[in-house]
Amino acid sequence: MSNTSGPNQGSTAFIVFISCIATIGGFLFGYDSGVINGTVKGLQIAFDSDSAGTGFSVSSMLLGCAAGALFAGRLADKYGRKALLVVAAAFFIVSAWGSGIATTTAEFVLYRILGGMAVGAASVMAPAYISEVALAKYRGMLTSVQQIAIISGLTASFFSNYFLAETAGGSTEMFWAGYETWRWMFWVELIPAGIFFFALLVIPESPRFLVARGKEEKAKAVLVRLYGDVDGIAKYTEIANSLASDHHSPRFSDLYDKVKGRVRPIVWVGIGLAVLQQFVGINVVFYYGAVLWEAAGFTESEALQTNVLSGTISIAACLITFFLVDKIGRKPLLWFGSAGMAISLGIVAYAFAGAPVDAAGNLNLSQESGLLALYGANIYVFLFNLSWGPVMWVMLGEMFPNQIRGSGLAIAGLAQWLANFLVTWSFPIMLAGIGLSAAYGIYTFFAALSVFFVIFMVHETKGMELEDMKG
């Protein structure tokens, strides 16, 4: 019997189920981003690359991410959120295989860019899809699962890298079938990528996309399945009215307010959130964790173990946010995280300051400084994943009005991945030039800056319906 007054347990479970399928894209986003962490030595040896070359090999994926995020938003407005996620899943499969089989830098970069396009598309489409199927009262919880999935993917890649390296005796040693261990680190991703592709075939298209494309009957059918007969039809009318006030075909020009002659303020807020999330330096820990800790005097095995610890701490932080984001709101979590990250990053910078460097360029930290750096970095990782990690994706998925959600996400996603590329590409250069302490000093500055950005620019979206979002 269908529901006549609102979502029942069955429909709520269905929403949770399809949201979890969408977040497999986040898992792959995290895995694809983190797997590179344990392969840097292998890439340097296989392709005989210097610091700048290695930095580009590692960060090349992020160029694909930028393109994927930019075009996915617009293409999703034309072909659908689900359709773009299916394409992303196929790209994940091709990239995972190709990255492991590559024999030249150019070939490797090509496959990594292809994977990056999948990551970029999934990074903006998964939260958008979840926001568009979930009820406002638990939309934040379900969207924050995206960050849990991302961190779970990162942690899974760290565990996988550590297990493979320990089994083979190192990331550059032969593992199986005559291939080096670092290549197998990429191929493990084929398993979740295949699961994602086939699981996507059972989820419905976003109802808000269907309304925007004028597919009334399909939209009503999905909404009734999600919310029940009465609430589903009422929600259809609400969505249709919100779109009818402008026009039914979303486009990039909607981001510009023709009446006031300026880009909509909400677009700048989205760009600010996206860029600052990266400028606090989080992906230095995730992409270069092994290199960073080895530079600080850890062995390869100790560095990989530290990565696993960071990933586990991150998951714990995301789980806390999962239960808090719809209770205390988005904005308090953001400014609290910003303040805490500024302090913890400052501690890490202090721990690295003044440490002597040996002939190989490695820091010789004292035991006290090493522990201070380790504790400071993991407190920073915890606070990031308590705040900016999940909350930015929650806000980007829900803060834009229906008419500009795809385009707004595209621009914010582009900014996020370009910032990610800049930070990731520049870190090896800063490591060789100004050192770890100065690099972390820069990330500390942006963490402090983000406190003021949140206070003065970000508006709370907790409990608001998507149709009530203003730009």
Structural descriptors:
21 helices; two-stranded antiparallel ribbon; single chain; globular; disordered N terminus; mainly alpha; 471 residues
Give an overview of the whole structure.
There is one protein chain. This protein is an all-alpha fold. Helices cover 76% and strands 2% of the residues. It is built from 21 helices and four strands. The protein has helices at 9-22, 24-34, 40-47, 51-79, 81-101, 105-133, 136-168, 181-187, 190-200, 207-212, 216-227, 229-244, 265-279, 282-287, 289-295, 300-324, 330-352, 367-386, 388-398, 405-433, 435-457; strands at residues 174-176, 179-180, 256-257, 262-263. The strands form two sheets. The chain has a two-stranded antiparallel sheet. A two-stranded antiparallel sheet has the order 3-4. Helix 4 runs parallel beside helix 6 (105-133). The longest helix is centred in the N-terminal third of the chain and has 33 residues, at 136-168. The chain is globular, with a radius of gyration of 22 Å. The model is unreliable at 1-5 (pLDDT under 50).
Order of helices and strands: HHHHHHHEEHHHHHEEHHHHHHHHH
Name the strands of the widest sheet in spatial order. 1-2
Overall strand count: 4
Largest sheet: 2 strands, antiparallel
Inertia-based shape: globular
Query: Low-confidence segments, ≥5 residues, pLDDT <50?
Result: 1-5
Strand content: under 5%
Please give the radius of gyration in angstroms: 22 Å
- Tell me, rounded to a whole number, the average pLDDT: 82
Query: Helix/strand-derived class?
Result: mainly alpha
Number of helices: 21
Distance between the termini: 40 Å
Helical percentage: over 70%
Subcellular location: Cell membrane
Pfam families: Sugar_tr
Main location: membrane
Keywords: Cell membrane, Membrane, Transmembrane, Transmembrane helix, Transport
